[in-house]
């Protein structure tokens, strides 16, 4: 039997069953116990709740969520639309990026980050999922209360808060827990480690032959804005406001990005052989976490050479992402970062938000990989359709700043000054790997060494998928629902 503590600041509990469901906002409205308790009413938690109540109509399921039920419009809605659902924003200094901040936003609402995403819904290459076979307080009044689950607790609080809840509940690296004065229930050194997100480099171009109409006219041309608002009000709606944030993207393997892919893979294997890769891990990484990282790097070296497994995503054609905004590709997203971060409690204040360490570009080879993106973009912009038809001209960084003969050290410094740490894709902090390799859950998503507790959210990924995350989060939640009780 497992008891989790929630320090709720505005706990909203939705008690659901196929026969009836209701929203409860006060502790006094709750039953003493439930068959299942799901911590986190986000993408994964609500999917699991839905499937559980379908499968067991007579059992009681409690979903605990700290956000509200909100009307959530799209991400790129016309002026005058209701505001976006509540996002909890983090701005975390990244040591390896000259202390520039990682900006991370998490949906703080029923629906979680599915309510505030850019609507890029895609799955990764099948190889990405094969690689996982690595398998080897009431916000109202601040009181702390408990509820027991007779069958199972499902933790779906997301990659930042799932490790936080585990660590607070005594499941995590024992050294950390002891320093924080928390009784160790299960020594699981991997909880919070293996943290990954998608870093990106955002370049600039000018489109000197901008077609008409173009997206900038939504800001600069009131008559065009009016026309598009009328189009949006039609049923069915049409026009530019019906677009999502990005509408297309290409996902290419390293073999298409640079002819140096084998050199980079060879350096990675050398880093593993001579042990230097381990020095890039965050402070406090246990031996088992190191072992898991070495195993992942062997897989990643293979990915760098696999012509069927993407390394870079280039989104384009969306609502917001280029300047001027005509959808010319300018953003290179590193889908398979080698660097790792960590999400750990502050031992001096376990009730505070956890400390989020981004390790972006900690491994130098991520710099070599991202540096190759620039020459890739230059080849792309040199295509006749972009160069001649749209008149694409590079403005940032520009060949005078970073040219083909710029020393590697200057290119690296430029990347550390310009790479974005987060694509708002935090994951992998309670990875599905063996305990001996820093893993936190097994194939059935049960937490190693604990009973009656599963994690179902993006924390369980071992390697970040080469895709936006929500489709895979849904898939994991659907998959766990098919596992026998
Ligand atoms: C979080 O950041 C987004 C994007 O910058 C912003 O629109 C929103 O208002 C912020 N939310 C809060 C609560 O500050
Ligand atoms: C939950 O279970 C624990 C251990 O059996 C028990 O001490 C506690 O009173 C229970 N809590 C509730 C709210 O029933
Ligand atoms: C972009 O190109 C247009 C057309 O040549 C020019 O008017 C404008 O000043 C340029 N903008 C920048 C930022 O270079
Ligand atoms: C990627 O490489 C493959 C194999 O060399 C080639 O057939 C394909 O056209 C390339 N694609 C792009 C977009 O460069
Ligand atoms: C280990 O190999 C990497 C990759 O070639 C290299 O950069 C690093 O200097 C080597 N470290 C040691 C200690 O030999």
Could you list some keywords that capture this structure?
GMC_OxRdtase_N; GMC oxidoreductase; 28% helix; signal; binds 2-acetamido-2-deoxy-beta-D-glucopyranose; 485 residues; alpha+beta; disordered N terminus; 20 strands; GMC_OxRtase_C
Protein architecture, described:
It is a single chain. This protein has 485 residues and is of the alpha+beta class. The strands form seven sheets. The chain has a six-stranded mixed beta sheet, with helices on both faces. 45% of the residues are buried. Strand 6 and strand 7 (100-107) form a beta hairpin. The two termini are 16 Å apart. 28% of the residues lie in helices and 19% in strands. Helix 1 packs parallel to helix 13, helix 8 (261-273) packs antiparallel against helix 9 and helix 10 crosses helix 12 (408-418). Bound molecules: 2-acetamido-2-deoxy-beta-D-glucopyranose (5 copies). Residues 206, 208, 395 line the site of one 2-acetamido-2-deoxy-beta-D-glucopyranose. One 2-acetamido-2-deoxy-beta-D-glucopyranose is lined by residues 267, 270-271, 274, 276.
In short:
The protein has 485 residues and is an alpha+beta fold. The protein is 28% helix and 19% strand.
Q: Which strands sit side by side, in order, in the main sheet?
A: 3-2-5-4-9-20
Instruction: Please count the beta strands (DSSP E, at least 2 residues each).
Output: 20
Query: Would you tell me the overall average pLDDT?
Result: 91
Assess the beta-strand content as a share of residues: 15-25%
The coarse silhouette is: globular
SSE blueprint and pairings:
Layout: E1 6-7, E2 12-16, E3 21-24, E4 33-39, H1 43-55, E5 61-65, E6 87-94, E7 100-107, H2 126-131, E8 144-145, E9 148-155, H3 158-168, E10 171-172, H4 174-179, E11 186-187, E12 200-202, E13 204-207, H5 217-220, H6 222-233, E14 248-253, H7 254-257, H8 261-273, H9 287-305, E15 310-316, E16 331-334, E17 342-344, E18 355-357, H10 364-381, H11 384-389, E19 392-396, H12 408-418, E20 453-455, H13 470-482
Parallel strand pairs: 4-5, 4-9, 9-20, 10-11
Antiparallel strand pairs: 1-8, 2-3, 2-5, 6-7, 12-16, 13-19, 14-15, 15-16, 17-18
Helix pairs in contact: 1-13, 8-9, 10-12
The structure holds 2-acetamido-2-deoxy-beta-D-glucopyranose (NAG) (5 copies).
Domain Glucose-methanol-choline oxidoreductase N-terminal: 158-172
Protein name: GMC oxidoreductase
Keywords: Signal
């Amino acid at each position: 039997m497992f008891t989790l503590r929630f320090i709720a600041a505005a706990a909203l509990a939705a008690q659901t069953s196929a026969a009836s469901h209701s929203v409860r906002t006060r502790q006094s409205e709750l039953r003493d116990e439930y068959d299942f308790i799901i911590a986190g009413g986000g993408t994964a938690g609500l999917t699991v709740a839905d499937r559980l109540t379908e499968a067991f109509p007579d059992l009681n399921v409690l979903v605990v969520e700290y956000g509200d039920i909100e009307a959530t419009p799209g991400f790129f809605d016309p002026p005058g639309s209701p505001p976006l659902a509540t996002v909890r924003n983090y701005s975390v200094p990244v040591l390896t990026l000259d202390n520039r901040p990682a900006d991370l936003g998490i949906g703080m609402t029923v629906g979680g980050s599915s309510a505030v995403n850019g609507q890029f819904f895609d799955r990764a290459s099948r190889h990405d999922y094969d690689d996982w076979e690595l398998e080897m307080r009431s916000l109202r009044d601040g009181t702390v209360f408990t509820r027991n689950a007779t069958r199972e607790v499902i933790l779906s609080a997301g990659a930042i808060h799932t490790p936080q809840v585990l660590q607070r509940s005594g499941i995590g690296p024992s050294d950390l827990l002891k320093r924080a004065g928390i009784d160790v229930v299960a020594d699981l050194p991997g909880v919070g480690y293996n943290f990954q997100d998608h870093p990106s480099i955002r370049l600039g171009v000018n489109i000197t032959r901008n077609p008409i109409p173009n997206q900038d006219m939504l800001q600069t041309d009131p008559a065009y804005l009016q026309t598009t608002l009328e189009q949006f009000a039609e049923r069915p709606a049409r026009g530019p406001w019906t677009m999502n944030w990005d509408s297309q993207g290409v996902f290419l393997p390293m073999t298409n990005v640079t002819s140096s892919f084998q050199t980079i893979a060879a350096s990675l294997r050398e880093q593993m052989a001579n042990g230097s890769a381990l020095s890039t891990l965050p402070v406090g990484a246990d031996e088992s976490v190191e072992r898991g990282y070495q195993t992942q790097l062997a897989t990643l070296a293979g990915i760098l050479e696999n012509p069927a497994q993407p390394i870079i995503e280039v989104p384009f054609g969306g609502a917001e992402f280029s300047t001027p905004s005509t959808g010319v590709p300018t953003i290179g997203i590193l889908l398979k970062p080698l660097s790792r971060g960590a999400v750990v409690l502050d031992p001096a204040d376990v009730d505070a938000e956890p400390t989020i360490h981004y390790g972006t570009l900690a491994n130098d080879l991520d710099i070599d990989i991202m540096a190759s993106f620039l020459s890739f973009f230059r080849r792309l912009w040199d295509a006749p359709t972009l160069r001649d038809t749209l008149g694409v001209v590079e403005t940032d960084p520009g060949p005078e700043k970073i040219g083909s003969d710029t020393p590697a050290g200057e290119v690296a410094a430029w990347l550390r000054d310009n790479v974005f740490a987060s694509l708002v894709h935090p994951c992998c902090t309670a990875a599905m790997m063996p305990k001996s390799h820093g893993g936190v859950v097994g194939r059935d998503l049960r937490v190693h060494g604990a009973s009656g507790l599963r994690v179902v959210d993006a924390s369980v990924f071992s390697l970040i998928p080469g895709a936006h995350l929500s489709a895979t989060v849904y898939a994991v939640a659907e998959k766990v629902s098919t596992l026998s009780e």
